[in-house]
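Table 4 source record.
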Amino acid sequence: MKKHISILVPDGAAVLGCIEGSLKTFRIANAFLESKGRQPMFTIQLVALTKAPRSYDGFFTVQPDATIASVKRTDLIIIPPVNGKMDEVVALNEKFFPWIREQHASGAEVASLCVGAFLLAATGLLDQKKCSTHWSAEHLFRNMFPAVDLVSEKIITDEDGVYSSGGANSFWNLLLYLVEKYVDREMAVHIAKYYEIEIDRESQASFFMFKGQKGHEDAQIKRVQEFIESNFQEKITVAELAEMVALSRRNLERRFKKATSNTVVEYIQRVKIESAKLNLESSQDNVNEVMYKTGYTDTKAFRTTFKKITGLSPVQYRQKYNRESPMGAM
């Protein structure tokens, strides 16, 4: 049965490559189907609030095919990434939201690409559901949408006809996932080979660059963060940190979690592992040397924590990202 695909053309700044990539993916699927003597499966439209052309990046213009008022029924809505201050971007595009909710209630599926998750979450359709987005937007997303179960390490989420993808080029993986669902595995593999995309990626954790979350106004918590970042090689306890800023342990934990979206222990681990990642990327220190430099003394604990945070073992991470590692090392 033919599927109607609505690719949103948001107001404000949006990532043109994701709009174009979505359009091309379903068009190429149609072309491949026709080359095999089969009927094309997708009707694809660029859908906006008005038919006026949208200009992105000051160079490129997108001409919508339809408006939300003219699309009475669709099967899949794709929300591309948007740029700028997210609260302003959400407000700028809020007229999309009733239409998206109505279409979903009528059976349409909805997919967000990268930070398009902010627009999807603003519809309320992600409440109590899993969602991914770009790892750099994790803290802001959690603050804006606490009712959403953010799983920022995931490449793809799929729950009750609502999909999301991780950061940047992860959107290709979600598009392939949807093609496989709507057509078949052979078609998804065909498109993956055409675009030279690594199919079936599940985690974006190895791409995370932990910068600390200091976009808050809690001066005592910032002091704790700065202390951790300056002394991560040492043994740091939560009790010592609480005493340093004259807070009870319970109060420190509560305020730290609210400010950073991490527990104190999680924050310490992430700072240590970020240092280990940088060492593995740039030096030839062996794994034990890297472990000791980041303040770990237990090999098993270090390797377990490293893999939990990055999705890779220390050796796998080095082979993937160290510029001096042999090409193709496994």
